[in-house]
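$ fold --in a.seq
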Amino acid sequence: MKPLLFLAGPRAYKRIREKGLGPDDVRLVLGASGAAKWLGIHGLDVAVFSDFLTGSSRPVPFFGTSIGAWKLAAATRKDPRAAFDFLAHAYMHQFYKKPVRRRHVDQEALRIVDAFLPPGAAREILSHPKFRLHLSVIRCNGALASENAMALAWGLGMAFTVNWKGRSQYIRRFDRVIFHDPREESLVNGAFNGASSVPLTPENFRSALLATGSIPFLMSGVPEIPGAGEGTFRDGGLVDYHPLPPEELEEGIVLYPHFYPEVIPGWFDKRMPRRRASAMDLADVLLLAPSSEYVEKLPFGRIPDRRDFKVFEGNDAARLSFWKKAVAESRRLGDAFLEALENGRIEDCIQPMGMDA
């Protein structure tokens, strides 16, 4: 059984087949939204960020939204392996009693962030010798800025209608704000036309990280992040659910550790199969994802999901058992990635995107 898929866009496929893959080939790493799904590739992330990318001789920019940004923040700590473990432990140990209110989820989000980003962590991340963190949030105004359920529902309903008509119109409807490592502006300038850019600082780091994961209805928006101006800031996954790479990028590989073998660009695209990213959208991407055979062997035949809080309602022990098993098994994904690199046969492992996985 092959636990890990190596799916390559056309330019990435050609490059890796001819030259193999080393850490200096990576020009960008992407991290997707997906809540608890990230637990399913915990071991893969540890291998990528703790063992592989640390060998790069040049700065590597990271870009993520929601939990994808949270895990990339963990990856940018001095000891990413320990930071990933802290994040996983804190995330798994969320407990809620009915009725679950928005403030309860807000409190748990604060607890998780504080667990893997203690005092001083922001300065550590923003002085990392190799890694450069970027994350996206959405500045909301009008109905989308409201915490009133009916007003927010109306605002999201309008956004859904616009998205149905076309993604380009949908993107223009939102004010994307890209928080970035102040040492790295080239990615922002070249990839997010029309977006606002705000340097990350120790003063706004925590608020920006909370905002990128602030799922509408489930969590409160974050008001007035230092340096970003007025507005209510919400989940960057509204636009960049599974972020796409920029069209213009220095020649090299975009590395995408992902929990699915497909990329869904926007939050409202989840039930729109025609909106899946094409191989040409991901031309420079090497996407690493669990194989269907691997997933089928997990408890319940799937990876963790935020809906498990409802599935296992009243039985946190069963949820924790499932999630811990998925995290433990995911080490095999990391081992498969490192083995392909160490035996020098990664070019034989990759397959072109679009082939049956």
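$ fold --in b.seq
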Amino acid sequence: MSSAAKIVLYHYSYSPYARRVAWYLALRGIPYSECIQPPMMPRPDVAKLGINYRRIPLLSIGRDVYLDTRLIIEKLEQLPGRPKLGAANNNERVTERLLQAFNIDGGIFNYCFQALPTDLPLLQDPAYYKDRGDYIGFDVTKESLIRNRADAIAELRGAFDFLEKTLLADGREWALGTDGPRLADIEAIWPFHWLTGLPGALPQETFSPVTYPKVYSWVARFQKAVSDAKKTYGRAKGISGEEAFRAITSSPYNEQPGAIDESDPVVAAEGLKRGTQVTIWPSDTGSSYKDTGKLVSINQTEVVFETLVPESRSTAVRVHAPRHGFRVRNSGGQTRL
């Protein structure tokens, strides 16, 4: 991977998932451009690339586009340059991965969503509930948020207890006891940073710097570290959808094509080969938005497919999705790449 490749982050500012990537880029001082998207569908800037995937963020490095923050951060870790943020040894890696699973696969974000105060401006728009229902896969209403709020707060109290009384219990300033924030802090902090910054999301009699002093101090330290990094390395350059499109489609690919793992059970079951037309989609949220393209490579960690941009019959981008949380199916047809 080349650190000189153009990097574009598609996101919107209050997406807690997008903050994970923006923080990583800031703390490592990796220059990038940002293409701000609407918080609800449609997103014409993404569709312009021939991508149906509806989740935010997406990140491009050259003409390769990466989906899902877990894969995005993994790819950014591979970039040369300033010191990486990932674990330095296997013990740290175990903690880092468990913190990732705790928040993303463990359902913490779902409870954060259910704790949102219903007087937020965005939550006054009926279109928001329709959009989020489409995203999650079942009806979302203001009444359902109010009804589920107490259960969500109870679950979040347990999560805050875990951070206060286990992860940070020995007085460490950072998740791995390091001298500054690392990837493990990003994996652990993002939903709590988001919630504590939303007035009215958490009842003050239960959640405050008094009841959870270590958690709130950690969030403040982390925010200062990110702000200081932006002052040192600079902020992202804002670009339009058209500028992002040109930057991506005029760039070389960031990665060489990988191989097809013949031992993969899905490869065998679906009869996948290089050039097979495949359909790929997330298996949890946003699952009704499916992408189709020509298979480039597939292994245990990621699947890569090539899709033509709508404006051209010859210009393509390569889209990378993680295997975890995504489905890959043979949609028929074989094309030589």
